[in-house]
Write a structure and sequence with these properties.
about 375 residues, TIM Barrel, alpha/beta, about 10% strand, 8-stranded parallel β-barrel
């Protein structure tokens, strides 16, 4: 029987990691897509948000372009960042997830925090339009594959693109989009990752400019057929303008009639007022419709902005008290990883490894002896 855990030279003796650490993220994502009714991925924009999602056991991570534009530039989703910038953000996120697996395994036994076994969720990254022509796609795909991400999606808008929920979208010719998909596949294969997962997105439903005569859902279906005909995409994503059930169900039904083995992706979009829907689509229903990858684009951005805004609004009225109350609530919840930023960022791990590798002033012998009731 194969051992389910493995040692690591980056850990002290006796502490092990899941054997899946050595599994390529693309292979892991394909396995999850095959085994689960659907794979859920919250949208994040930075390594820390991805680590929090990983701590809570999500299937996968969606590295959102819109979230990255807001988190990295304080701007909107209109190709205002470059391929190099978002690829580096994705690379740092993958690295942070691998690091968290190490630090979580160590925990902080001296302060009663046991080690925790975490799986590394595969990361799917927004590639927008590929940031230019087919050769820009070539460079971007190389950056993404070498960053260690599991997958990427590319859309059929003209560059510079617009967010899928901003008016005025125009589409490139379907043949040009197929060329970009072919380039993604060729680059990943050339780099040795034949399992790299490729998602083809169409903005046909709400595009105002395209070569075809069709518009609306008919255009989106025609585009999906063209992309699936190429045999390249592992998933197809249709961007819908609202949370209305009908178009989502019809798109899935029509695609699967023609391509029974097709897998779909669905953006449970932060642009939709789901709370106003009388009968909102559920993840389970979407999975039954063939949507194997479900993600909330701005999940981390909205939750961070909401929580931080509420804190600052309260502090404007009550000064330090809301922050102290927040700390009290945070420390009262045993399963929140954030209460000790030192433990979450891996100070105990670094101290153990500092001893192991003989680094001065990095071992556990360096302590200020402060009471645990006073500091984290």
């Amino acid at each position: 029987m194969t051992e389910r855990t493995m040692p690591s030279p980056l850990l002290p003796d006796g502490i092990t990691l899941p054997r899946s650490r050595s599994e390529h993220p693309s292979i892991r994502l394909r396995r999850l897509l095959k085994e689960k009714p659907y794979v859920f991925a919250p949208g994040v924009y930075d390594p820390h948000g991805a680590q929090i999602a990983m701590y809570h056991g999500v299937d996968a991570i969606y590295f959102s372009g819109y979230s990255f534009a807001m988190g990295h530039l304080g701007a909107t989703d209109m190709d205002l960042y470059s391929s190099v910038e978002i690829a580096d953000g994705a690379r740092r996120t993958v690295s942070a997830l691998r690091k968290l697996q190490l630090t979580a395994a160590v925990g902080d036994l001296e302060h009663g925090v046991p080690g925790k076994t975490l799986e590394i969720p595969p990361v799917l990254v927004d590639m927008d339009t590929g940031y230019g022509n087919v050769f820009n796609v070539q460079r971007t795909t190389e950056l993404y594959v070498n960053a260690g991400v599991a997958a990427a999606h590319i859309e059929d808008q003209v560059a510079p693109k617009r967010c899928g929920h901003i008016a005025g979208k125009a589409l490139i010719p379907a043949g040009e989009m197929v060329g970009k998909l072919r380039m993604m596949r060729a680059v990943a294969d050339d780099l040795g990752n034949k399992d790299f997962v490729i998602v083809a997105r169409t903005d046909g439903v709400s595009a105002v400019d395209a070569l075809e005569d069709e518009r609306g859902l008919d255009l989106a279906l025609e585009r999906a057929y063209r992309y699936l005909d190429s045999g390249i995409p592992d998933l197809v994503w249709c961007e819908f303008p609202t949370a209305e059930r009908g178009p989502v169900e019809k798109f899935a039904d029509e695609v699967l009639k023609r391509y029974p083995d097709a897998q779909l992706a669905f953006n449970f979009s932060s642009s939709f007022k789901w709370f106003n829907e009388s009968n909102p689509l559920t993840f389970a229903e979407l999975g039954q419709l063939g949507h194997k990858f479900i993600f909330i684009t701005l999940a981390a951005q909205h939750s961070m902005a909401y929580g931080f805004s509420r804190l600052l609004r309260s502090m404007a009225a009550r000064n330090e008290r809301p922050y102290i109350e927040m700390q009290h609530a945070e420390w009262a919840d045993d399963d929140l990883p954030t209460k000790s930023h030192h433990v979450f960022s891996g100070v105990p791990y670094h101290q153990l490894l500092g001893e192991l590798y003989g680094s001065a002033r990095l071992g556990r012998e360096v302590t200020e002896g402060l009471a645990a009731t006073s500091v984290v």
